[in-house]
């Protein structure tokens, strides 16, 4: 039932009638215009295409190169990656043990409390950014049956052989696997990723064009930011990282406990130490512990660091000691002390083995 009568309606719209009539029966052009032949003049070379053609092309291109990426483990590093993924126009979903829904909405990420709901969104890529220690538990809790039959799994763990073996063991055979390690974090990559290394290993990528394409699109995220793309096997990565990563984090943590402070007369060397502390202090203890647990040589490196520290101490105190002894007892005793310091340094250089140790007789017993 209308709230007004038809008479009222015709009264209100009567002033529109001439206008409407002029649209349906356009008045003829004036006669002088009909008589003159106007030459065709091009007024615009770049005339707007129907339906905003360029914008449509741009949006189609974006859609064709954008991925739907589900991040599992939305802590420090997961959020850091999400910011750049979103800025490149990818659709990001996330799930984590803790509730990050408000952080996620600030980052324009859809947060799912339940991994079943997330998997039902059929992401192209599932990215594991969990702590090294919790990765197996998280992986085993994913309802694989709710994902697309072909999904790309990517991990960003700081160790590589462990997730590679785990993913090969746990994932259905039709899923693709890309193991990666962005060699930077929220501190070192806070301003730009340009020039920072991104290590990756295409562990298992199916033969179809779309699967190869999906993997390349994912790698392109890092290439577009200017990362130094380094393809190497997981085993090679772990061999290189074993000697550097754990030592870097350990020294950073020791210096943090030591309590370095900035001063108005910082040298370049001191600035480097302050940077190291800043880069490592934001990382969780879980991350550091994971590096210790999954690095076969971590224990040995810790012992060598300890020996190196003691050797430096010995050298310093030895010098001081010798001067006093020389003054008190003469040259012969001082020379004996010098010999002890040298033997400690040699032990350190030979990786902890006693300087004059005999080689083991049974070759199998050597490690
Ligand atoms: P992290 O402490 O190594 O990992 C934190 C993440 O693990 C959080 O999302 C956390 O979830 C999840 N988590 C921890 N324990 C869990 C459990 N029992 N069950 C389920 N989830 C659990 O810190 P991160 O810096 O964010 O690193 C994430 C991954 O990226 C690690 O594998 C790390 O090696 C790698 N990575 C880090 C950096 C870096 O600079 N930070 C650089 C390269 C690679 P909740 O927050 O929901 O509890």
What does this molecule look like?
The protein has helices at about 5-15, 15-25, 30-35, 55-65, 75-85, 100-105, 115-120, 135-140, 160-170, 210-225, 235-260, 270-280, 285-295, 300-330, 330-350; strands spanning about 70, 90-95, 110, 125-130, 150-155, 175-180, 195-205, 230. With about 375 residues, the chain is an alpha/beta fold. Strand 7, helix 10 and strand 8 form a beta-alpha-beta unit. Residues about 20-25 and about 360-365 have low confidence and may be disordered. It starts with 5 loop residues before the first helix and ends in an 18-residue tail after the last helix. The chain has an 8-stranded mixed beta sheet, sandwiched between helices. It is elongated. The structure holds NADP nicotinamide-adenine-dinucleotide phosphate. NADP nicotinamide-adenine-dinucleotide phosphate binds near residues 75, 97, 98, 138 and 182.
How are the secondary structure elements laid out?
Blueprint: H1 6-13, H2 17-24, H3 31-35, H4 53-65, E1 68-72, H5 76-87, E2 91-95, H6 101-106, E3 110-111, H7 115-119, E4 125-128, H8 135-140, E5 152-155, H9 161-170, E6 176-182, E7 197-204, H10 209-224, E8 228-231, H11 234-258, H12 268-281, H13 285-293, H14 298-329, H15 331-349
Helix pairs in contact: 11-12, 11-14, 14-15
Bound molecules: NADP nicotinamide-adenine-dinucleotide phosphate.
Domain Prephenate/arogenate dehydrogenase: 67-346
GO molecular function: arogenate dehydrogenase (NADP+) activity; prephenate dehydrogenase (NAD+) activity; prephenate dehydrogenase (NADP+) activity
Protein name: Arogenate dehydrogenase 2, chloroplastic
């Amino acid at each position: 039932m209308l709230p007004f009568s038809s008479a009222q309606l015709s009264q209100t719209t009567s002033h529109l009638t001439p206008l409407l009539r002029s649209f349906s029966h356009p008045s003829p052009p004036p006669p002088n215009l009909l008589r003159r032949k106007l030459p065709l003049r091009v007024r615009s070379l770049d005339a707007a295409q129907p339906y905003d053609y360029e914008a449509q092309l741009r949006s189609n291109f974006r859609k064709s190169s954008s991925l739907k990426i589900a991040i599992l483990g939305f802590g420090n590093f997961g959020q850091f990656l999400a910011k750049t993924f979103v800025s490149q126009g990818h659709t990001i979903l996330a799930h984590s043990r803790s509730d990050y829904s408000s952080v996620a909405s600030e980052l324009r990420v859809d947060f799912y409390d339940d991994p079943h709901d997330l998997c039902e969104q059929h992401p192209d890529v599932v990215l594991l950014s969990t702590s090294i220690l919790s990765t197996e538990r998280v992986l085993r809790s994913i309802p694989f049956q709710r994902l697309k039959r072909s999904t790309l799994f990517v991990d960003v763990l700081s160790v590589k052989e462990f997730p590679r073996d785990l993913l090969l063991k746990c994932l259905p055979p039709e899923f693709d696997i890309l193991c990666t390690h962005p060699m930077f974090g929220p501190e070192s990559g806070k301003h730009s990723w340009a020039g920072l290394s991104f290590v990756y290993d295409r562990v298992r990528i199916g033969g179809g064009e779309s699967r190869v394409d999906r993997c390349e699109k994912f790698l392109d995220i890092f290439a577009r930011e200017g990362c130094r793309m380094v393809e190497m096997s997981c085993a090679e990565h772990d061999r290189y990282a074993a000697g550097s990563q754990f030592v870097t984090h350990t020294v950073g943590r020791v210096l943090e406990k030591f309590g370095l402070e900035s001063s108005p007369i910082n040298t370049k060397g001191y600035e480097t130490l302050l940077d190291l502390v800043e880069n490592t202090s934001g990382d969780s203890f879980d991350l550091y512990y994971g590096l210790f647990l999954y690095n076969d040589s971590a224990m040995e490196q810790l012992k060598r660091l300890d020996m190196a520290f003691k050797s430096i101490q010995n050298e310093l105190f030895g010098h001081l000691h010798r001067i006093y002894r020389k003054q008190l007892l003469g040259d012969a005793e001082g020379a004996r002390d010098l010999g002890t310091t040298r033997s400690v340094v040699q032990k350190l250089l030979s990786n902890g083995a006693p300087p004059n140790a005999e080689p083991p007789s049974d070759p199998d017993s050597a490690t």
